[in-house]
Amino acid sequence: MNIIVADHYEALSKEAAKIIEEQLQTKLGSVLGLATGSTPLGLYEELIQGHRERDVSYKHVHTLNLDEYVGLDKHHPQSYHVFMNKRLFNHINIPLKQTHIPSGDASSLLDECKRYELVIDEVGPPDIQVLGIGQNGHIGFNEPGSSFAGITHITELAHSTREANARFFSSPEDVPTHAITMGIKSILKSKHILLLASGAKKAAAIQRLLTGEANEAFPASALYGHPNVTLIVDKEAYKEME
Ligand code: F6R
């Protein structure tokens, strides 16, 4: 695992953007695996700036998002569809038909899981997959105990995950109980994984990731099984390692 320790969140976001823009220079039609949540927001701002100021083009890029809440349609303000449009897609020149996010309100969620796994295989695998990490070590919404052999599936969100994400909803009870997520095996198909972690709240998870061993009780440890992972942390998240 290649580790980059950035001084602060802004520097972390710039490092991540640099890696993605270098990838786009190498291959115009790159496939990017994307995450939601707070951590990649700075990265997305940097990418928007790169598009505006450095003419970085997304015309031929395809994207695959990790997950979506079950029960929210794609126009719901807290859906990851709206999140991605607002935070990135509306501000770069990517044709929306080249962006892929699982549907959380499909009439058959089982069929939707199968469909999305096929999309990953047809469009992907991602050249770069951006990941955040939950305080409990989740990647995507693969909560502790998820199989490392899992593909796209419906998952019940851990209580701590719903609590952590309550900040985006008007009340904690409004946070969906389930999500559709790429499985760990689907995530590991990516050619290069960029794991981002910022802030003291992530320090314990990063310490466990860097000192532990592969174990389904700690989903991020599945990354040990991948040959090309870059962890970008800020000093706050890396603190306990010093
Ligand atoms: C988001 C996702 C989650 C988040 C994780 C960290 O698509 O799959 O695994 O990356 O919950 O969230 P933040 O960045 O809000 O701390």
UniProtKB/TrEMBL annotation:
What GO cellular-component annotations does this UniProt entry give? cytoplasm
Pathway membership, UniProt: Amino-sugar metabolism; N-acetylneuraminate degradation; D-fructose 6-phosphate from N-acetylneuraminate: step 5/5
Note the superkingdom of the native organism. Bacteria
**What's the protein name?**
Glucosamine-6-phosphate deaminase
Task: Indicate the segments forming the Glucosamine/galactosamine-6-phosphate isomerase domain, all copies.
Answer: 10-224
Q: Which GO terms describe its biological process?
A: carbohydrate metabolic process; glucosamine catabolic process; N-acetylglucosamine catabolic process; N-acetylneuraminate catabolic process
Catalytic machinery residues = D67 (proton acceptor), N136 (for ring-opening step), H138 (proton acceptor), E143 (for ring-opening step)
Which organism does this record belong to? Jeotgalibacillus soli
What's the Enzyme Commission number for this chain?
3.5.99.6
The UniProt gene name for this protein comes to: nagB
**Similarity remark:** Belongs to the glucosamine/galactosamine-6-phosphate isomerase family. NagB subfamily.
What this protein catalyses is: alpha-D-glucosamine 6-phosphate + H2O = beta-D-fructose 6-phosphate + NH4(+)
> In UniProt terms, what function does this protein have?
Catalyzes the reversible isomerization-deamination of glucosamine 6-phosphate (GlcN6P) to form fructose 6-phosphate (Fru6P) and ammonium ion.
InterPro entries to which the protein is assigned, alphabetical: Glc/Gal-6P_isomerase (IPR006148), Glucosamine6P_isomerase (IPR004547), NagB/RpiA_transferase-like (IPR037171)
Q: Which Gene3D superfamilies match?
A: 3.40.50.1360
Q: Which Pfam family is one of this chain's hits?
A: Glucosamine_iso
